[in-house]
Amino acid sequence: MSGKADMYSDGLIIRLQKIAFAGSTDGCRTVINAVQQLKADGRLPILRYQFRDRPHTTRTVVRMVLRLMKEGERLREILITGKKSFAKRALHSKRFALIWRLVQKEDVTDIYNIFQHLAYKEYRYDSRASPMMIFCSKLGAMVKVLIILNNDTLPCHRLDRLWANEVLQVLQGVEGFHALVCFAIESDFAFATHLLTKVQDESQPDVSLTAHQAQTCLDTCEVLFLEGAVFSSEQNGTFTSTLLHGLRQRHVLPPGFFADRDTPYSDIGWPTDLSLIDVDRPLLFARDLYSATKLFFDINYPDHSWRAKFGCFNEGEGRYAESIRLTCVEELAVKEGLCPVKCRNQFCQILPLLRRHYSECLDN
Predict the structure, then answer these.
(1) Whose CA is closest to 282, among 225, 222, 218, 217?
(2) Which terminus in the chain has less CB density within 10 A, N or C?
(3) What SS3 string covers 272-305?
(4) pLDDT at position 112 over 60
């Protein structure tokens, strides 16, 4: 063939413009934006849905989680992950072990196991029953032990006093209290979005995230961070509520410590009644996390909520309840400009065919 070859057919382009109402792309942002631009330019006039349908790399969601977990990064390093963190130093402090037994009336073996797990292992947010939950529940007692270490002026206890003071400096005053709450909020955020980095496709090493999982993650973040469920006055299984509940617990300290005071929080600038500290800043931080998560899904998984509604045709594993399927059909009909009642009736008529088809070929 001589001359410039035709790279496309005008007839096929016109045909595509008439029938393409849904687009499916891989995870490349350039491709996602290109399809959206085609719609905006009128080149795909009836495009109403766009899905990111291929398995996508773990880095996309991992980077999102880590990028948003900046507020409590310094405190997380000082308490857990740093080379000279509280958890690592407490493991080797005989003075800490002695005072812990007096304050908590329990052996240090359990808390040492928690420190060991958090300080030297990467998986800290696997489940609500993880060591991080126990760590949050006992942070109140840990702070009181640190204050005791910091107030000990004996020369032989100088090293313990120095590292305890380093940790308490970060917790000083209302700002320090807010930083501690934000640390717990980020732990809840890491757990709520942990699904994004754990769901593995059977045939691919990359993460394969379904629309249902994306929507579930977003709904969970909305309840916890936008509506503020993490700040519940009662323990609800979140790290933040567990932390706040643990800080409010009373500890009968041994005679001679703080002149028998029960709550030494005033030594670091916290009021005796922690409810007097407003949580406006942590609440704004929690809401920012939700807004960023929603934006992340809108950019990387466009129309994920509508894709979930197409699950009404699924007859295999994960099939929706009958009432949910019918609701999804009606909502899709309205979006397509059709009569929801007629579509609902037609869907009920084809249900037996869908079930027979699935039973014969096990394919949706």
Answers:
(1) 225
(2) N
(3) CCHHHCCCHHHHHHHHHHHHHHHHHHHHHCCCHH
(4) yes
Give the integer Cα–Cα distance in Å for 152 and 172.
18
Nearest to 175 by CA among 287, 71, 249: 71
The phi, psi pair for 210, rounded to 5°, reads -85, 165
Tokens of residue 345, six digits: 């009736």
Q: Which residue has the tokens 């929706």?
A: 320
Residue of 346 and 4 predicted with greater confidence: 346
pLDDT at 339: 93
Neighbours of 101 (CB within 10 A): 13
Q: Would the pLDDT of 213 be above 60?
A: yes
Within 10 Å of residue 200's Cβ, how many Cβ atoms?
13
Q: What is the pLDDT of residue 344?
A: 92
Cα torsion at 168, 188, 285, 299 (round to 10°)? 140
Task: From residue 348, give the alpha-carbon distance in Å to each of 29, 323, 326, 343, 363.
Answer: 39, 11, 8, 9, 19
Closest CA to 24 of 296, 297, 302, 210: 302
pLDDT class of 251 with cuts at 50, 70, 90: low
Q: Name the token pair of 115.
A: 């420190």
Cα 141 from Cα 252, distance rounded (Å): 11
Contacts of 340 (CB under 8 A, 6+ apart): 329, 330, 331, 333, 334
Distance between CA 319 and CA 309 in Å, rounded?
Answer: 12
Token representation of residue 326: 């019918």
Mean pLDDT of all residues belonging to the chain: 78
